[in-house]
Structure formats: structure tokens, C-alpha cells
């Protein structure tokens, strides 16, 4: 039987639990005057292929709002609350959003997660005059601010991913690829930007394969493996979400297409834990290019804000909001998207006494309008600039994307440690610099007998010496003393830099002197060496008539001759056709970065219009004929049209492409200092020996 004391303690605990639970329920209710609306997909716990934990993203959305309260941020005297929409498809999302907007004072929307949802609901923010900040949708067409003026996002569009992938292909000199996409907005949008980026880097897409999400199979399921097997390209790029990527890899394993004959590149990490041990072993080596927060590539983030967020998230859920000590990437993006709207709204309300006024003329969502939303969105685009948990966050008036924050990791699936576990290991990282950098790992000392017996400083110096000697192709065992090794490092460093400088100058000289244009004349255009839509032709006239009759009906229309050269310089077209005299004169006088190619392919004549009864008509004919026969016409043409001023401008009376002593002075001074260090190292033991001899007692 329960004692009175035990019963009393139980009642107290139940009472405290009730108070805590009630407080949790009133978190949103206590701040209902102004709210943010979060859009999240349903976290399908029964779906084995669900790798992104959207519940953590939801938690970080709520955490950002709770932190605003903890930091005592008020909005026209009110605290900030939230509403959430969790649905499985676009239509249910639209219906629920409309209900929330009609019955609550919503000043901003966070989300949605999927690119398909953005296409459907992106019209709501503009209609209500409120901003929408996405943390996961990457549609490239949503970067156009002219048609998406109320849309923002902290995760970069797929155009940046395609650009990073094209740079990766350039770096490894890959020239062709087969692309597999999921057949929806995300897949087709990715394919479009891939084509644009690959065209500029001369990478050819050999095969395009569609994967049907509903049927969980390829649209050409009977021959897709045969297409890849017979393809001239051994690189397969998969542009699909996590679940679809998993399905594609399962099909590839079934058809034995993941052998070393192919290089697989993914745009999302397939959940590796869902494969069995045999399948994991066959998948080792696949690559994944994924967007990441700045902290994973060494970019500064707001660590104190992140620590506060993780603490609140833990207190809310009674468990960490991180996996392997890392918060989910999209959860971090969700936090920064929410925090951006909070900071902008806080500034808006500090400058406007009526920052929470709404116009609600009807009961449905289409009659709701945020009165000062235009000013709110201007602040978000022009004044919001902060260091978030994913890196610097800032927007502009030119795009819906954040100005900075394009960070990607190239991960490689590998066996980790002695446990034979499998994981995606970072191999290279890419940021706004436009270059992929290798991520290096050095763990040699414990297994190298020559280093284990040395202290840390000594072993580091020996390691630098060995690696430098290997880089320059010199035997590291040649020198046996510390002074000699230091001197050799300096000597061979100077040698490498001198050879590299000379090679670079020689390569530049040869490249400039031997550069050839992409096409050699009209025949290359006829043969389709460049796309017809990138050939510029001026509307009207004989040139257009000849082009349409003899080349193609497809062309890029131009309005004037000046537009020929401006569009060539802006790379909107690759070639243009017009009269020879204009091209030669302009490329040799005003547009030195352009060149005239090909032979004349159409002859035309010009005549002078005069009156039929003009007395001097016969004299004019005779004098023109005389000028032609004497060669004076050719002399005038050469003087006014064929003088290459651009070539004269390139002739430098004081050429600076020579390697002078002054240019190399820094290198020589560095070598002198290294030599001085070597001398000091060489003489130091002698000094110690002299000191010892002095201290010895004389007998």
C-alpha cells in the first residue's frame, strides 16, 4: 500500500509535470499577435529511404523564434510566435496555408522544402505582401527576382551546384558524362543548368536518362543499363533527391553497373545504412557533391548563436538535435532563414510604429494583405547582413539567392577505421573562389619507424624535408646533416619556382601566338559546329536572305551592326555574319578582342544614285574607272580599312614579359635567409663544443 509521504510526492511530481506540459502548450498561444509560418514535409518514419530528418529542421525553426524571445526581441511590443504546416502533397499544403493565413497574423513564411512545392505556392507571398525564405528548395528558375520578388533563400540554387560540378569536370579534364535525373521540377531544372554550364566548359552530355518516382523505375527500364554500358562516357551523374538516388543505386547494383568501370557522382547522399554489407562494398568509391554550411569548409560561422540554438533544441526535445555531433545541414539553413526574417522584422518595427497592421477584408486568405510588407522586404534585401550558423547571410536586389554562402563538399564513400564501417568522407571542397581544393589527411608518424623515435618538432622538420625532396624529384637521402637538408630545401624550392615561372611565360607566349578561333568560316556554321541560335544576323538585307536560303532558318536576330560586337563580347552569341569591310575595320580598330575569320562567300556591288539628266554622269564614270585601274581605290581601302591598329597597340616598346632580377629579388632574398639559417644550424654544434671545452677543468 502506498504511504502518505509517497502519495504526496507523486502528486507533487504530477502537478509539476502538468505545469511543464501546460507551459509547453502555451509557448505559441502566448505570442499570437505576430507569427511566422513554417512549411515542412511529413517526417515519414515508416519510409526506409527517408534520410533527411525534417523534424530537426522544424525544431531549429522553433528554436530561432524562442531565441528571439530569450534575447528580448519584441515587435511593436509583442513577442513572436509561430504556426506550422506539415503535409504530404502540394494541394494539402496550399489548403492548410490558406487557412493559417486567414486566421493568423502571418508576417513571413519559412520554406518550403521541395522544389515542386515552391512552383505551386510561390504566388502566395507576393499576394499577401510578405516574404518567403526557403531553406531547401533549389529551383534555378526561382533566382529571377523580377518574377519572384517576395522569395528568398539561404540555400543556393542548383545553378551554383551545376557550376561547381562543371569546375570539377574541368579540374579532372573530364569531357563527357551520362546524366540520370528524377522526372520532376528538381530533375529537369538541374538538367537545364547542367547543359548551360557544360556547354561553356565543352563537356558533352552523351546520354539523358529519366527515373520515374511513382513507378520506382527508369522510363526506359528495358535498356538503360545497356545504354550506359555502350556509352563512350564512363562517368554517370545522378541528379535526384536522397530517396530517388537510393532507388537508382539499387537498380545499378542489380545490373552490376557500380563496378570500377564507372565513376558515379551524386548530388545528394544516398542513405548508406539502408544497403546491406555486400552492397556497401560494391558502392565504395562513389562521389557526392552536396551543399554544406560554411563551418564544414572552414568558413567562419556564429558559433555562440549555434551553441545557444543547440542548447534550446536539446531542452525542447530532451535529446540532442545533432547526429555525430553535427546538426543536419538543412536544419541549419532553416535556422538562418528564420533568423533573417526575425532580424529584418525587428528592424522594421523599430522604425515603424504600425509594423503589424493587416488588411483583412474577407475570410479567405486571398483578402489578407500585410500593410507595410513592402518596406519589410526592402529591409530584408538591402539592410539584413549577419553572421549566421551557416556563414555570412546577405541578400540583394538582383537575385533571390544569398550573396555569399556557396559551399560544396565532394565526398567519397569509403571504409572507415578498423570497424569496417562505411561513410562519406570529404575529399575536396568548393566555395565562392570557384576552385576545388583537396582535403588532406596525414597520419604517418605512428607507423613510420624513422619518425617514432623523434620528438614532434624534429619529426615535423624531417617530414617537410622528405616531402619537399619527393616533390622536386631529388633523393632525400643525399644529405645527412640538418644544415645540408635546410640548404637543399631552399635550393630546390628556388629551382622549382624558376622553372615554373619560365614554363608559365613560355606557355603564355605560345598560347597567345598560336591561338586559333573556334570556327574557320561559313562552312563550319553550316556543318553545325556551333548552334544556329548562337549565330547573329542583322534583320533585313542581303546577308539575312543568303543565310536563310543557304544555311538555316534558325538564327539570333540583331538590330544593328553595333549589336554584333557588343553581343559577341557579352558571349550572348558565338559568331555573327555581316559585310567584310565592317568586320575587318571594327576588329582591327575598335574591338581588339574579336577576330574576323573565313573567306568571302557572297559578292555584292554598290552604286551611286544620280539624276538621269546630270551633266557630269559620264565624267564620274570615267574617273571612277581611272581610279580603279590606277590602283588608288585599293590604296584608299588599305589606308582607311586595313590598318591593324590593334596589332600596333599590342607592340610594347618596353616589353615586361622578361624575368628580371628585380622581379625575382624576393625569391633570392628568401633563399639567402634559408642559407643563413643553414649556416647557423651548421655552426651551432661547434659553439656548444667550444663551451664544453671551456668548462672542462684543466689538469
From TrEMBL:
Query: Where is this chain's protein located in or outside the cell?
Result: Membrane; Postsynaptic cell membrane
Q: Its topology with respect to the membrane?
A: Multi-pass membrane protein
Q: Say which domain of life the source belongs to.
A: Eukaryota
Q: Does the keyword Repressor apply?
A: no
One CC-aspect GO term: postsynaptic membrane
From the UniProt annotation, give the residues forming the signal peptide.
Answer: 1-22
Occurrences of domain Receptor ligand binding region (ranges)? 91-410
Gene3D superfamilies with a match to the protein in the record: 1.10.287.70, 3.40.50.2300, Periplasmic binding protein-like II (3.40.190.10)
- Is the keyword Glycoprotein in the record? yes
Q: Where are the transmembrane segments?
A: 663-684
A family per Pfam = ANF_receptor
Q: What is this protein called?
A: Uncharacterized protein
What organism does the record attribute this protein to? Didymodactylos carnosus
Amino acid at each position: 500500500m502506498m504511504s502518505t509521504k509517497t502519495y504526496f510526492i507523486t502528486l507533487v511530481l504530477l502537478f509539476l509535470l502538468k505545469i511543464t506540459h501546460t507551459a509547453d502548450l502555451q509557448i505559441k498561444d502566448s505570442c499570437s499577435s505576430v507569427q511566422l509560418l513554417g512549411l515542412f514535409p511529413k517526417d515519414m518514419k515508416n519510409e526506409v529511404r527517408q534520410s533527411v530528418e525534417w523534424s530537426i529542421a522544424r525544431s531549429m525553426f522553433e528554436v530561432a523564434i524562442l531565441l528571439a524571445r530569450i534575447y528580448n526581441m519584441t515587435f511593436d511590443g509583442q513577442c513572436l510566435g509561430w504556426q506550422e504546416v506539415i503535409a504530404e502533397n502540394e494541394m494539402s499544403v496550399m489548403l492548410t496555408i490558406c487557412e493559417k493565413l486567414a486566421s493568423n497574423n502571418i508576417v513571413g513564411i519559412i520554406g518550403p522544402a521541395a522544389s515542386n512545392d515552391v512552383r505551386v505556392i510561390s504566388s502566395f507571398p507576393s499576394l499577401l505582401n510578405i516574404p518567403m525564405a526557403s531553406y531547401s528548395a533549389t529551383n534555378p528558375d526561382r533566382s529571377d527576382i523580377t518574377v519572384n520578388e517576395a522569395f528568398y533563400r539561404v540555400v543556393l540554387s542548383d545553378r551554383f551546384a551545376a557550376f561547381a560540378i562543371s569546375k570539377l569536370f574541368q579540374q579532372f579534364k573530364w569531357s563527357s558524362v551520362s546524366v540520370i535525373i528524377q522526372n520532376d521540377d528538381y530533375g529537369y531544372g538541374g538538367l537545364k543548368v547542367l547543359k548551360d554550364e557544360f556547354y561553356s566548359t565543352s563537356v558533352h552530355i552523351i546520354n539523358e536518362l529519366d527515373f520515374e518516382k511513382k513507378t520506382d523505375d527508369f522510363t526506359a527500364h528495358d535498356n538503360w543499363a545497356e545504354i550506359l554500358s555502350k556509352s563512350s562516357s564512363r562517368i554517370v551523374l545522378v541528379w535526384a533527391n536522397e530517396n530517388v538516388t537510393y532507388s537508382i543505386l539499387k537498380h545499378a547494383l542489380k545490373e552490376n553497373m557500380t563496378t570500377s568501370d564507372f565513376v558515379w557522382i551524386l548530388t545528394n547522399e544516398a542513405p548508406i545504412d539502408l544497403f546491406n554489407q555486400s552492397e556497401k562494398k560494391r558502392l565504395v568509391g562513389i562521389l557526392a557533391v552536396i551543399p554544406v554550411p560554411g563551418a564544414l569548409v572552414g568558413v567562419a560561422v556564429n558559433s555562440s548563436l549555434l551553441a545557444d540554438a543547440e542548447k534550446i533544441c536539446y531542452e525542447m526535445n530532451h535529446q540532442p538535435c545533432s547526429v555525430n555531433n553535427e546538426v543536419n545541414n538543412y536544419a541549419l539553413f532553416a535556422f538562418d532563414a528564420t533568423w533573417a526574417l526575425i532580424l529584418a522584422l525587428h528592424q522594421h518595427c523599430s522604425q515603424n510604429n504600425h509594423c503589424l497592421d493587416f488588411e483583412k477584408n474577407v475570410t479567405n486568405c486571398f483578402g489578407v494583405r500585410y500593410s507595410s510588407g513592402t518596406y519589410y522586404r526592402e529591409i530584408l534585401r538591402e539592410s539584413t547582413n549577419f553572421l549566421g550558423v551557416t556563414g555570412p547571410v546577405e541578400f540583394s536586389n538582383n537575385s533571390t539567392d544569398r550573396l555569399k554562402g556557396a559551399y560544396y563538399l565532394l565526398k567519397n564513400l569509403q571504409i572507415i577505421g578498423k570497424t569496417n564501417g562505411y561513410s562519406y568522407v570529404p575529399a575536396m571542397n568548393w566555395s565562392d573562389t570557384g576552385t576545388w581544393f583537396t582535403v588532406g589527411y596525414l597520419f604517418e608518424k605512428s607507423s613510420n619507424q624513422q619518425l617514432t623515435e623523434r620528438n614532434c618538432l624534429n619529426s615535423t622538420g624531417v617530414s617537410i624535408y622528405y616531402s619537399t625532396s619527393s616533390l622536386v624529384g631529388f633523393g632525400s637521402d643525399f644529405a645527412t646533416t640538418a644544415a645540408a637538408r635546410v640548404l637543399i630545401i631552399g635550393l630546390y624550392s628556388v629551382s622549382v619556382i624558376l622553372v615554373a615561372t619560365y614554363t608559365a611565360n613560355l606557355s603564355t607566349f605560345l598560347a597567345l601566338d598560336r591561338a586559333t578561333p573556334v570556327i574557320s568560316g561559313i562552312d563550319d556554321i553550316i556543318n553545325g559546329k556551333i548552334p544556329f541560335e548562337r549565330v547573329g544576323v542583322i534583320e533585313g538585307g542581303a546577308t539575312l536572305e543568303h543565310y536563310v536560303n543557304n544555311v538555316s532558318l534558325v538564327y539570333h536576330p540583331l538590330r544593328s551592326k553595333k549589336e554584333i560586337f557588343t553581343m559577341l563580347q557579352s558571349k550572348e552569341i558565338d559568331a555573327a555574319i555581316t559585310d567584310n569591310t565592317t568586320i575587318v575595320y571594327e576588329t582591327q580598330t575598335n574591338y581588339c578582342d574579336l577576330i574576323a575569320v573565313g573567306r568571302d562567300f557572297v559578292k555584292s556591288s554598290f552604286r551611286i544614285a544620280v539624276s538621269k539628266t546630270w551633266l557630269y554622269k559620264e565624267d564620274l564614270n570615267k574617273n571612277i574607272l581611272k581610279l580603279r585601274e590606277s590602283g588608288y581605290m585599293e590604296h584608299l581601302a588599305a589606308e582607311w580599312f586595313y590598318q591593324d591598329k590593334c596589332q600596333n597597340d599590342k607592340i610594347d616598346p618596353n616589353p615586361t614579359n622578361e624575368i628580371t632580377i628585380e622581379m625575382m629579388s624576393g625569391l633570392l632574398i628568401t633563399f639567402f635567409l634559408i642559407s643563413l639559417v643553414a649556416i647557423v644550424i651548421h655552426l651551432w654544434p661547434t659553439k656548444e663544443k667550444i663551451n664544453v671545452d671551456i668548462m672542462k677543468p684543466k689538469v
